[in-house]
Amino acid sequence: MLTGKQKRFLRAQAHHLKPIFQVGKGGVTEAMTEQIAAALEARELLKVSVLQNCEEDRHAVAEQLAAGTGAEVVQVIGNTIVLYKESKEHKQIVLPD
């Protein structure tokens, strides 16, 4: 689990990032979850955009993605979800204690 201080740090790191995945009408699919997991391994921190035509609640989408990828939900703001997962091989982000 991330502490409040760590989440604040990650929100600041994610601020300049652009969403690289979009969840649309089909909701969260297994293929999407696999791609996001692979991207998290490479980047550790990323944004996912929830489109207007998505039938599920954005918080539900965030929970599904977190459960499917083993990531932490840093923040859900507007229609954007920020996810973090520590990389096994490409560790770049050093979290504050």
TrEMBL record:
<dbReference type="Pfam" id="PF01985">
    <property type="entry name" value="CRS1_YhbY"/>
</dbReference>
<dbReference type="InterPro" id="IPR051925">
    <property type="entry name" value="RNA-binding_domain"/>
</dbReference>
<dbReference type="InterPro" id="IPR035920">
    <property type="entry name" value="YhbY-like_sf"/>
</dbReference>
<feature type="domain" description="CRM">
    <location>
        <begin position="1"/>
        <end position="96"/>
    </location>
</feature>
<protein>
    <submittedName>
        <fullName>CRS1 / YhbY domain protein</fullName>
    </submittedName>
</protein>
<keyword id="KW-0694">RNA-binding</keyword>
<dbReference type="InterPro" id="IPR001890">
    <property type="entry name" value="RNA-binding_CRM"/>
</dbReference>
<dbReference type="GO" id="GO:0003723">
    <property type="term" value="F:RNA binding"/>
</dbReference>
<dbReference type="InterPro" id="IPR017924">
    <property type="entry name" value="RNA-binding_YhbY"/>
</dbReference>
